[in-house]
Amino acid sequence: MLAVYHLPYDPDYPVVCMDESCKQMIGEVHQPIPCAPRRPARIDDEYVRNGVAEIFMAVEPLAGKRHVAVTTEPVNDFETLTVGI
Description:
It is a single chain. The protein has one helix and three strands, in the order E-E-E-H. By secondary structure, it is mostly beta strands. The longest helix is centred in the C-terminal third of the chain and has 5 residues, at 78-82. It is elongated, with a radius of gyration of 20 Å. The two termini are 23 Å apart.
C-alpha cells in the first residue's frame, strides 16, 4: 500500500486520502480570572456543551491539494461531501 505514494503523479488516477473527525464544541460557564504577578490565570473546569462539529478532509498528496468540509449536521456518507473535489 505504501508503494502507491511513491508512484509518479498521474492526473487521470489521483491518489486521494480521506479522513473524518468529530469534535465537541465547548464554552466557558464562568469568565476566567486573568493572571497577576506570581499568580497564574485561573480557569474553571466547568463548561457548557455547544454541540458537535464533523470535520472531513480529502488530501491529494502528490498534487499538493486538500479539501476540508466542516458541518454541524450529521452526514451519512462521504459522497455528499466529495462532490466537487
